[in-house]
Amino acid sequence: MPEPSYYLGVDIGTTSTKAVLFNKSGQIKESHTVFYPLHTPNQLTAEQDPEEIFRAVLTAVRETLRKSSISRQSLKLVSFSSAMHSLIAVDADGALLTNSITWADTRSSKHAKHIKDNLNGHEIYLRTGTPIHAMSPLSKLLWLQDEKPEICRETAKFISIKSFMFHKFFGEYVEDHSIASATGLFNLQQLDWDQGALAIAGVTSDELPRLVPTTQQFTGVAAEFATFMGIREDIPFVIGASDGVLANLGVDAIDPGVIAVTIGTSGAIRTVSPVPKTDPKERTFCYVLTENHWVIGGPVNNGGIILRWLRDEFASSEVETAKRLGIDTYDVLTKIAATVKPGADGLLFHPYLTGERAPLWDANARGSFFGLSIHHQKQHMIRSVLEGIVFNLYTVLLAVEELTGEPARIQASGGFARSELWRQLLADVFDKPVIIPESFESSCLGAVVLGMYATGEIEDFSIVSEMIGSTHTHYPEEQASDIYRELLPIYIRLSRLLTEEYESISDFQRKHMT
């Protein structure tokens, strides 16, 4: 009897790399996660060590395969998902000149504003589909040229973290269309680097990786790394796509009219279109999955990271309680939030602790509680934090709906989907049924499905509906939805009214905080 076939998805994320081994039915055989730090010496900087992340990739693959005990011959492919918007400078010998400057780094905020206001930023966005923001490599390149000219003079290539990985594996700098489409440097219609954007960034095509489709295969991985990981040197490596678009594929939100909502450290709302679409109001992105699948949506900075802040800064007693009971602190916090009725008695929270991308695209945005009164207690604040995160996602949904219409269904994934309260919150705020797939490994599963498509094992993506396993559906509760319909307009108006003050307070913070 022949041994079953297995497929490995590798997701290179902001805080960890995860490798997940699937069989052909989408069942998880084994997985392994390796964590690494995000270096934030000040409130603007967010960098990572590319070599540390590469070691994490090697280790995640090796440990997953070691624990699985499958034979080398039964592994059919390795396919990659990666976080977007990273930028790394390397010299002609491949030596690192910078760390990986991540999406969360906001040092280029003023340069993004300059592009927007003075360098035809709107036209650049319409051609590239990447909103003009400090997250994008376009803004980061302008910042580097301005602030670190000595680095730019030595740079031979500006690359992403995935491009760094593939150079280590195969000796060539390549960039898949999906990661490229999140740089602000990629022309959606031409599927090539955008010459107008390159001129603004001060780089040429020769200083960027070679562009390849998301289905591009590579074989002949360097022998030392193949040996370390426990794989064959001739196994196909599929370059894959970005984590966001693969999450859509991995939760079966690939057909037009289906919305995917993801909340992990950050969050996003995305849907798929057969053609690229950009927003005249510049609220949404448009990224490549394949030439026939374009993912439109908006990312938010402030997802689970806000809950972590709440835990670390305000919930020391709850942390101790959780330790004593041997349960997760977040379970304690959500149980406390559940004791408060929807709307938190009129307490609103804007979760812009790390600035915000969609729908504001304002790195200066700052968080706030609004509506505090003497009767509000800690449990109200916990509830309002959870609601504020979902309210913010709802405002992104409104922007997406303007481009693609009202969704037929909503598929949700990410760490938050493990929480009953969060799932119900999403249904109540969105006032629509929310479907939760059994598998939480959406980006890795999406990478594997794309890899199977690339290698000819499947003819289209329809197989994913059978691979995601059983689903759970949460329906909106009418009374809660009615309360949120009253509060949401207030929430939205406040964020707009405070735009000028966001800039004022962030200027003060940069001046006085170290």
Automatic annotation (TrEMBL):
Q: Which keywords belong to this entry?
A: Kinase, Transferase
UniProt-listed Enzyme Commission number(s): 2.7.1.12
Domain Carbohydrate kinase FGGY N-terminal intervals: 6-250
Q: What class of enzyme is it?
A: transferase
Determine the domain of life of the protein's source.
Answer: Bacteria
Recall the GO molecular function terms of this protein's record.
gluconokinase activity
- Please report the stretch or stretches of sequence annotated as the Carbohydrate kinase FGGY C-terminal domain: 260-454
- Give the record's family classification: Belongs to the FGGY kinase family.
What's this protein's name?
A: Gluconokinase
Q: Which organism is this protein's natural source?
A: Planococcus dechangensis
